[in-house]
Amino acid sequence: MSDVVAEKPVWTRKHLLTLNDLSPEEILYVLDTAESFKEVSTRSIKKVPALRGRVVVTAFFEDSTRTRMSFTLAAQRLSADILDFSAKISSASKGESLRDTARNIEAMGVDIIIVRHSSAGAAYDITQAVDCCVINAGDGQHAHPTQGLLDLFTIRESKGRIDGLNVAIAGDIAHSRVARSDLRGLIKLGANVTLVGPPTLVPRSFEKLGAHITSDFDAILPKMDVINMLRIQQERITSSVFPSIREYIRLFGMNADRLKRCKPDVLIMHPGPVNRGKELAADVADGPNSSILRQVTNGLAVRMAVLFLCQQAAAGNT
Amino acid sequence: MSKSILIRGGRVIDPSREIDEKMDVLIVGDKIAGLGREAAGSADEVIDADGLLVTPGLIDMHVHLREPGHEDKETIETGTAAAVAGGFTAVACMPNTDPPLHSDAEVEYVLRQAELVAHTRVYPIGALTKNRAGRELAEIGLMVKAGAVAFSDDGDGIADTAVCMRAMEYVSQFDRLFIQHCEDTSLTRGGCMNAGLTATRLGLPAIPAVAEVIMAQRDITLARQAGVRYHVAHVSAAGTVDLVRRARQEGQAVTAEVCPHHLLLTEEMCARYDPNLKMNPPLRSQADLQACLEGVRDGTIGCLVTDHAPHVNSEKELGFQDAPFGIIGLETALPLFIRALIDSEVLDWPQLIAAMSTRPAQLLGVSGGTLKVDRVADVTLIDPEIEWKIDAEKMRSKSRNTPFDGWPVRGRAVLTMVGGEVRYRAEQE
Question: How distant is the Cα of A218 from the closest Cα of chain B, in angstroms?
Fold first, then answer.
């Protein structure tokens, strides 16, 4: 986007697999690009020709409605052609390997594969088999980079900065790709991140990634600028990770009472879908501190930016 | 104005401050008000403690009160009546009741019932897993909020390693003690006495010492990883003592307790199939007994407990192989520990009181265990010389299952005070 011809472009990646190896400049560049795309959504004709003639496939090997819709709409607004692939109607269930499936998809003349898979590393594996762009829409417990970016975008939009903010991520950290992506992005941009939950859900190894760890939610509430509440899964009870939803709510649920003990302008985030009345009380989810719907809106702009930047890098016409 | 009591002229032993000398103790209301050679000129009541030991109230951190669910064996009322007569001002009760103490509701029940009828303080120990089944975590956080002081599935150990690990991690967030009944039941199922020559001779299915050792070994490794304070219940095997000693030398937060019977009795005594000698862990070998004594001597085993486990006669009359495990102990613990540890010079008196009061209070994070000014006036007066004979028929416990009936012993509690209130006074003989 610079008009100085000799300057090295900030974004040169054709894949987005994780936020781990991005520089702060690269992350900020995506956020800045997303800001300009956000404006597109406010127009009466919500479409730009940036990916006209390009083919984007959403290859979802794991169920997802929201993320797929968000990516599909993002690609549509960039005027791309969209193809849906889901494991249920594919040969994946017939024993075809992930790499073979990816090669077959690419052979149809596809420019970007957006992949969601229940196994960590699946998006990386696909990059080893194809030449087109690969965007990770969530791989196992490993990464969900566009969720991380949209959370960063939402925080920056709300607080005007990320550097120096105190951010808590509460809940099932161990099993969460969202937590991992948020954590990496936040730390790169200078936030102080605290992971909150029972030790069974917040492994101490996360300290080595630069996070603070605590089981005492109430103690940290007054210091936080942002609190991101992760979805709690019923199936963690039978695997003896915590005893009951009732106990979880008492110790780690966000509700009006806890909100009162936070800073008045604390930002309450949630990647969705919310278990209302469980990790997040309904009145807080719908209240003025909540950014849940803005996160969804921003997700669209961020995904437009990611599709655009990766395609541009692949085409070499930065 | 609150009532004042002066305990005059006793040998005051307070391990929390390394005090062991002849002093007076002044109590005002429910608190210790002063210690000194002449603490106060006058008080509402003066108790003559000449020739007696004046110690922080004894605390038994391993008791089965059986309520709710087995009130035929014991109740909170009768169990604590036995406790106070044995010199205890507080007991921690194990959760293997029916229903088990596995959620805040049962913990609150025990505390409310204790408030109504108990003679001592009662500290509930919550279950680690639902129904003590070793599969899903119990509502440990809610039990902490309700007042549980520690957690254990006592009666059973947690067999599944992953469940045990998670339980340890989960407990670690509350800084409560994790107490394990160490027994690998895949090695002990059906067993009823120690594996050895006597079991072979008697034809009884056996419980090998290694079943205890192997779980303690696993647990110590897990607990180090989980960062939980880990406590081995009722140590009985030499191998366990070694493991605990080594872990403590390496600085790990590992503690252990032992019962009187494992310091006084051995497996050979089961020769007559007396069901009152059937307990779990079982009586072991002389070498195990010696190792336990050595563990107490060098501080490896820092707590002395009863594992008071009442059963009705009809159950013990089933015969050795079919009778339930366990014996009562609250009214005999003090003279038996005197016999096992003071008489044999394994411990001196301040060390004994530390193991029966100060240290359990510290591990459970409860009041008591000290005679510091402004702390609760939980005090036990002990006559260390009185000679008497254990008589099961005179016990306050609902049950009579003790192998020590008829034993001549020395030393007993003569007065037990809880929160400045005299709750037990021995009859003059």
Answer: 13
pLDDT, position B429: 47
| pLDDT at position A90 | 54
Per-residue pLDDT reduced to its tens digit, B69-124: 999 999 999 999 999 999 999 999 999 999 999 999 999 999 999 999 999 999 99
What gap in Å lies between CA B340 and CA B2, rounded to an integer? 41
Q: Is B156 a catalytic residue?
A: no
* Chain A neighbors of B226, CB-CB under 8 A: 199
Residues 6+ apart with CB under 8 A from A281: A253, A254, A255, A256
**What would the CATH number be for the domain defined by A24-143+299-313?**
3.40.50.1370
Percent of chain B clearing pLDDT 70 (strictly above): 98
Catalytic residue among A8, A94, A204, A260: A94
> Is residue B12 pLDDT above 70, yes or no?
yes
Please tell me the distance from the alpha carbon of residue B233 to that of residue B216, in angstroms, as a whole number. 10
pLDDT of B424 strictly over 80: yes
Q: Do B170 and A247 touch (CB under 8 A)?
A: no
Distance from CA of A99 to the nearest CA of B (A): 34
**Does the CB of A243 have a partner CB in chain B at under 8 Å?**
yes
Is residue B318 pLDDT above 80, yes or no? yes
User: Residue A239: closest CA among chain B residues belongs to which residue?
Assistant: B136
Question: Is B369 a domain residue?
Answer: no
Strand, coil or helix: what is B91? Answer: strand
List phi, psi (to 5°) of B251. Answer: 90, 10
Q: Are the beta carbons of A243 and B169 separated by less than 8 Å?
A: no
One domain for residues B220 and B349: yes
Residue matched to tokens 């991992």: A180
Q: Is B166 in CB contact (< 8 Å) with chain A?
A: yes
Common-topology check for domains A24-143+299-313 and A145-295: yes
B173 and B208 together in one domain: yes
The pLDDT-based confidence of B281 (bands split at 50, 70, 90) is very high
Instruction: Tell whether B370 is covered by a domain.
Output: no
pLDDT at res. A318: 42
Is A215's Cβ below 8 Å from some Cβ in B? yes
- CA A30 vs CA A68, A125, A185, B392: distances in Å: 20, 24, 12, 81
Indicate which CATH number applies to the domain containing B100.
Answer: 3.20.20.140
Q: Would the CB atoms of B130 and A243 count as touching at under 8 Å?
A: yes
Nearest CA in chain B to A202: B169
Would B103 be classed as within a structural domain?
Answer: yes
| Weakly modelled stretches of chain A, pLDDT under 50 | 1-2, 318
Listing DSSP states for B256-292 in one string gives: EEE-THHHH--GGGGGG--GGG--SSPP--HHHHHHH
Q: Average pLDDT in the B162-179 region?
A: 97
The reply to whether A229 touches chain B by the CB within 8 Å rule is: no
ipTM score for this prediction: 0.87
Architecture in CATH of A145-295? 3-Layer(aba) Sandwich (3.40)
Question: Which residues constitute the domain of residue B391?
Answer: 4-54+375-398+406-428
* Residues B153 and B29 occupy one common structural domain: no
Min Cα–Cα distance to chain A from B142, Å: 6
A–B CB contacts, 8 A cutoff, strictly below = 51
The pTM (predicted TM-score) of the whole model is 0.93
Q: What total number of domains does chain B contain?
A: 2
Taking an 8 Å cut-off on Cβ atoms, the answer to whether A247 and B167 are in contact is: no
| Cβ B422 vs Cβ B379: under 8 Å | no
Residues B50 and B68 in one domain: no
Q: Which residues of A touch B142 (CB under 8 A)?
A: 243, 246-247, 250
Domain ranges within chain A, ordered by starting residue: 24-143+299-313, 145-295
Q: Distance between CA atoms of B237 and B209, rounded to whole angstroms?
A: 6
pLDDT in tens, B221-246: 999 999 999 999 999 999 999 999 99
Give me the pLDDT at residue B33, please.
95
In angstroms, the separation between the Cα of residue A213 and the nearest Cα of chain B is 11
CB contact under 8 A, A198 and B226: no
Answer yes or no: is pLDDT of B139 > 50: yes
> Over the range B273-296, which residues count as b (16 or more CB within 10 Å of their CB) and which as e?
eebbbbbbbbbbbeebbebbbbbb
**B124, B50: one domain:** no
Q: Chain A within 8 Å of B148 (Cβ-Cβ)?
A: no
Q: CB–CB of B170 and A198 under 8 A?
A: yes
